[in-house]
Amino acid sequence: MNTFDEKYCLDTFEKLLSVDSTTGLYEEMESLVCEMLDDMGYPYQVTRKGGVIADLGGRGDPLVVTAHLDAIGLMVRRINTDGTLNVCPVGGLYPVYCVTENVRVYTADGEVYTGTVCRTPGSVHVTEDELKGHLGDFRSNVCVVLDCDVRTPEDVRALGIECGDYVALEPRMTVSGGYVKSRFIDDKACAAILFTLLKEISDMGLVPSRKVYFYFAFYEEIGHGTTWLPDGVCDILAVDIAPTGPDQTSDEHKVSVFAKDSRYPYHYGMLRELTAAARRAGVDYVVDVITPHYGSDGDATVAAGYDVRHGAIGPGTMNSHGYERTHVDGLRNTYGLLKEYILG
């Protein structure tokens, strides 16, 4: 039975979005995850590099279910002569997907400053026609303009901003007509699904049909989120977005079961188990092949040399790595499949 608590899931998603967590900037989010698990009564362990692994109990061949809480963003590369910031991407973020976005700059001493990602020149009215068609490039014509009265590198450094500081993008979450629009649906919405199931298991006293861990990882966007696993794990299931597109079967209203991505086919036996669980649960699902630029933390685990089966599922999502959109139906169907797979 699909008992998806939509309000709790969306509230949790918004709570996770309230904490900036550009890949590498994980400490505050890690503390929040631990606090939430403490409130529910789950034991967990924290990894050295950032990551929280909750133990759901159960007996039998261990399964890790993972969703990542790191997000794409930017880093200060240098301070420009006019007091703007030259930035470089952290993860797969491109200028076209973030120009005009509001940002927060995190300094090493704990200060936070706001700003905006801008093209240079920054106004259509003062941009020569031949420059208007140029693609945005972090190296040459895209910068961060601070909401501070700064004109020189010395002004900026007086604020404590230096090369290597993290820059986080404003998520701008909204829900309309059942559609959820926000940055970082990849993958905070999926992490919210995991927390929603954790809450139901705790509230109802449910026990997984096998040993299960929920792994909240923090380095998926750069390829090494789950390159370490607890001893004895047999399977890993990534819960991540399923990008939609002209050549994709993924749909915002459905849960996708991945057959292959840009790196590997997923384990065929696990694929069959997941589609069988989807049918038992009565969820609306599709099988998809997601290429050419998609991968999951399950791939990272296999590439690290672990002898595990790996699979991936997730809600269909538009505009990946930009201002993303999915539907509560996709979240509900992902929840129903995950619940059936670990409890059925």
Task: Please supply descriptive tags for the structure shown above.
344 residues; alpha/beta; Aminopeptidase; Elongation Factor Tu (Ef-tu), domain 3; 2 domains; nine-stranded mixed β-sheet; six-stranded antiparallel β-sheet; globular
Task: Describe this entry's structure for a reader.
The protein is α/β, with parallel strands linked by helices and 344 residues long. The protein folds into 2 domains: 6-71 and 184-343, Aminopeptidase; 73-169, Peptidase M42, domain 2 (Elongation Factor Tu (Ef-tu), domain 3). It has helices at residues 6-17, 27-40, 129-132, 153-158, 185-204, 268-281, 297-303, 328-343, and strands at residues 44-46, 51-57, 63-68, 73-79, 85-90, 102-106, 112-119, 142-146, 166-169, 174-176, 179-182, 212-217, 235-239, 242-243, 255-261, 285-290, 309-317, 324-327. The strands form 3 sheets. Strands 1, 2, 3, 12, 13, 14, 15, 16 and 17 form a 9-stranded mixed β-sheet that branches. Helix 1 packs across helix 5, helix 5 (185-204) crosses helix 8 and helix 6 packs across helix 8. The longest helix is centred in the middle third of the chain and has 20 residues, at 185-204. The chain is globular.
Q: What is the radius of gyration?
A: 21 Å
Total individual domains: 2
Which strand-content bin applies to the residues?
A: 25-35%
Tell me how many strands there are. 18
How confident is the prediction overall: mean pLDDT? 96
CATH superfamily of the largest domain: Zn peptidases
Please identify the structural class as seen in this structure: alpha/beta
Please give the count of helices.
Answer: 8
Q: Rough shape?
A: globular
